[in-house]
Structure formats: structure tokens, C-alpha cells
Write a structure and sequence with these properties.
- There is one protein chain.
- This protein is 76% helix and 0% strand.
- With 167 residues, the chain is an all-alpha fold.
- The chain has one domain: Four Helix Bundle (Hemerythrin (Met), subunit A), CATH 1.20.120.1200.
- Helix 1 packs antiparallel against helix 2 and helix 2 runs antiparallel to helix 3.
Length: 167
Amino acid sequence: MISDILFWLFSALMLGFGVAVVCLRNPVSSALSLVMSFISLAGLFFLLNAYFIGVIQILVYAGAVMVLFLFIIMLLDLREESLRKINAAPLVGGAVVLAVFSGCIIGVIGRFEQGNHPFPEIMAPEEDVVGFGLRLFESYNLPLQVIGTLLLVATIGVIVLSKRELR
């Protein structure tokens, strides 16, 4: 019973802060909303007894990556976005896409019979770190290296963009 309440609480917080990331005009407020969304996602991992993944979610994403994002925002000296005139065509197009996508999701959920069964644990708690490490470095080694390379390229790009020309 309490796990159901926590699931809906963490899900609502994650979705709410995810919407705030997109809707807020201040980049720092948007980044802090992303931190709260990451922490809510970690709570969902804790509910699935995936403690290691939850802790890594907080340490790596909510900690290190968001500090990097905030550093980039402050380094580039981004200002709050000014209000723009609302264009009706993209707004109507977005509403149509949202309605079609919502209809597809509702149709899939309505036909998904296993959705009423309890979700199995991701892995046994005693094998959490070992199983995750083996799966990460044996099965997902290439995606891990690609993500590391993307982060390196993004960091170098920020340094190049923030370098000021001397006159």
C-alpha cells in the first residue's frame, strides 16, 4: 500500500518537474527542476529494489552532470528568455500531435494485460552491484564508451564556445 503511494508520488514529482524544465524561462531554475526530476527517478529505482542504480542516479546525474550543466549555464552567462508572441500554427500542430500520441498510449495501455500484475524486482539485492557491473561492462560496453565520448566532446565544445577572442 505504501509503495503504491510512493510510486504515484515519485511519478507525479518526476513528471511535474519535467514539465517545469521545459516551461521555466530561467535556465538555472530549469536546471534545478531537472535535478529534482532526477531525484524522483532515483526514488522510483529505490522502489524497484535497484538501490545501486538509484544511488548512481543521484551521484552521477543529479550531482556531477547537473553541476556541469550549471557551470556551463553560468559560464555562458545565459539570461532569462524574453516572452515571445505565440504563433497559432505550431500550437495547433502540437495539440494535434499530443492528442494522437495520447490516443496511441491509451490504446496500448488498454490492451496491455500484464500491466495489472506486480512488477518483478530488477535483480536480487545481494547481486545488485555485481550484476549491474557485469551487465554494464559486458553487454553495454560500447554504449558506455559512446556516452563518455559525447560528454568529453560536449565539455570541449563548451570550452571552445566560452573562449573569448583577444583584441
